[in-house]
Amino acid sequence: MSSLTNAPSTVQAIFSLDVITAVLATVVFSLAVAILATRIKNGQIRSFERKRKSSHTGAVTPLKTTLSTHIFLIPAIFCLALAYALQSAIVAYQTQNDLPASVTSTFEYDYGSSSSSAPSDSSGQRISVLTFTKTLAAILSTTLLTGAVWLHSTNLTSNGEQTASPKTFSKIWNTIIISAIFIFGIASWAQGLTERGSGQEARSFGECITDDRITRILYIVFRCVVIFSSTSVSIEVLRNYIHLKANGVPNNSERPLLARFAFVVCPIIWLRNAFIIVTIVMIYTSVSSTTGSQALTFLFIIFGQLANLVILFMVLWGAWSMGRTAGMGGGQNHADD
What we know:
This protein is mainly alpha-helical.
């Protein structure tokens, strides 16, 4: 039995990045809860309590608040923090049992350990439970993250244009694609659970993907749905910015907020999706981790867990900025008459 202190520097770095991600996500989660609690305390969270007159139509339109964004954002950050706290524990247990260290749910870094020695009964069960719990948290975080990105951009558009947003088609379409992420993610997770086994024979989620064809297919479909749905949402974010730029009320403060959000978050989503495609190819072709380089290992981490953390932070920053410019943080509402 080995330990992290005796593990190769690459494995120690993987563990450290998992811990850093979990800690940073916990900090962002605390900030999100604090912001929401402050606005609820100040009675500045319900959109129908804050109305303004549209300079375009003369009609009274509701000022959107960040409540809907926070409903998706806070659980998404919590699930991300939980997922990588569990991922840290997984790597620690794998190192103790001389097993390849997990980088993602499907990719392991084989550092030349004596993996022929099977884990003990308790450690095998523990690793199995941890991997399935981590995968469930990651599925929930991915689903909620996509919803938070969409809602934040539509709220900014609504306030900037002083029109009702999102439109009916956007609501229906995005509800379908975001729900599809959850449905296929849970389907792959549940199928893996049926193939997991028990006791010393209990397998990790990654092993279920490798050994069970149905689990593998469902997980690949899930990852493809994530790519499609998040790309669709990112395109809508850019479309909202273009529409707001052309049709927003004069001197509205939402346009620069949406511009910052769109031009930072969308490229990160596309880069993250490119690495999801790489993982799909590796699953489909059954590429062994021994053929991958250390650089590939860390690119998976950087454009996987850290990309999701940055996206969630940008949503939180945008929601906080939106609250300040709309007068929900105790300041003056720029649009009130």
